[in-house]
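Hi R.,

Here are the chain sequences for the assembly we discussed:
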Amino acid sequence: MRRKVFAVVILLTAVFLFLFWLANHYVFGQLSQITPPRDVNVDTRTFAGAFLTGLAMFATLFLGVVLAVFLTIGVVSGDAERGLLQPLVVRPVGRSTLLLSRFLGAAGVCVAYVLFVYFTAMVITGLTGHWWPDRIAWPGFELAFGVVIVIALSLLGSVVLSSTANGIAVFMLFGAGLVAGLLGTIGHALNSHAVKQASTITAWALPFEALYQDALRMITEKTSGLTGFLLQLGPFGGAYVHGWGIRVWSAGYLIVVGAIALWAFSRRNL
Amino acid sequence: MRQGYCGRVPNALAVRGLRKRYGSVEALKGVDLEVGEGELVGLLGPNGAGKSTLVKIAVGLVRPTTGDAEVGGARAGSRSARAALGYLAELFRFPGWYTADEVLELHQQLAGSRGGAAERARLLELVALSDAAERRVDGMSKGMQQRLGIAQALVGEPRLLLLDEPTSALDPVGRRTVRLLLEELRRQGVSVLLNSHLLSEVELVCDRVTILLAGEVVAAGTPAELSRARGVELETDDGVRTIPGATREDAPRLVSEAIAAGRRVYGVRVLTSTLEDTYLEAVGGETD
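And here is the predicted structure of the full complex:
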């Protein structure tokens, strides 16, 4: 089953990267034909490059989360139902080591995958459109960190929920985070205090979303003027909760979720 | 009986006042059970009697509500308890892409066994899977997987072996292989708790038998103790007559009395109840 998941992920990734190259090819090929009004000072290359890179980052996060969820969705409940877990758990190596090794295994695969897709997409845009993000590496690391948090949440879910329920729960959390991020962008554009506050609370409650938004922010963090303003209004505008605060919070969040998962697993009847 | 070590050597498995409640269902209601060093104990009972729950508590898969379970003197579920046991679950699977040899190698790593390739080859031979060492689990029959499961349970030379329905998927030849294996383990001094539905199998190999019903021990003892005398059957020229309550020791006297009474005696047979009779009596005729 997991082999098929890998095959599907590789196929989807190849299709995505090809389509992404095609989009870059057409967008940057027609860039010279886009002429904003004289009094509107917009850097069209930066706008197109940042928009396409933002799109690639969203797809990278989505594919990374799909991979993470399918690798961890049934680590405890699913494997216990199938009888795979019991022969392992009774060994002296213990439950915590087993869960940690599953976490590290999934994290290793997903981090490598996210970084590969992120940097490949960035190189495609860079070579095709001659535009590079303001920050090269950090956004990729933050995307990968966000996926690692999803892995931890999925592992915790697998301890207390059935595989199906866990999959639904994790994807709903992921969707809720994305919607909250978009609402935050709208809230800031409209200057709506309530919407901004709801988005901020969600960003702290689901830090994988905040990390994604922060990664988006960093690709154009040195872009100012009307170009920067227009980018911030768009769906890939970036975070309003950002910086080291959310990174440290995310690390603490990961530790707490992991600790709860280990504690719940140690007490679970199998 | 291998009991009575005056507390110097802890039992391989000691269960005292064990209770387990799942919501409103009480699966175990204060069970006491001991498996001595090198002893082979059979656990019998209908489905839902609490046998698997008891075994799962012993191996640390399930936490008891109250009561104690110890493996070699260590709390069940603790690292030292887990290091001392081998376990075959009633329902288990190995990753389908692993070969038999790789399954055993994985469990050697998890158990910290240093037996290496020699141990794996010996275990596969013990369960008659030497020819299938490089075969993937996906390509094995259910019976072969069951035997591989038994080999897996023996990795690391455990002091206590807990087998939950080890012969459920085996054909008669496979069952005989397991029976011979159990006898060999007994010779080697390995303690075994055997949870099985096959009464004849338990009767053949076990030193003692415990029968559970609805979470309680309803009968326990050696197969001989549980197979009580049911009388003596005397065949004479007057027909076949059963003398209830008579034992083997009464047989010569009964024959003498019949001859003295002028009867011709053609045969005499001591009747004993089988373990199956005792089991059915103990569980009140409950079936699975």
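The longest strand of chain B covers residues 25-35. The radius of gyration of chain B is 22 Å.

Let me know if anything looks off.

Best,
T.
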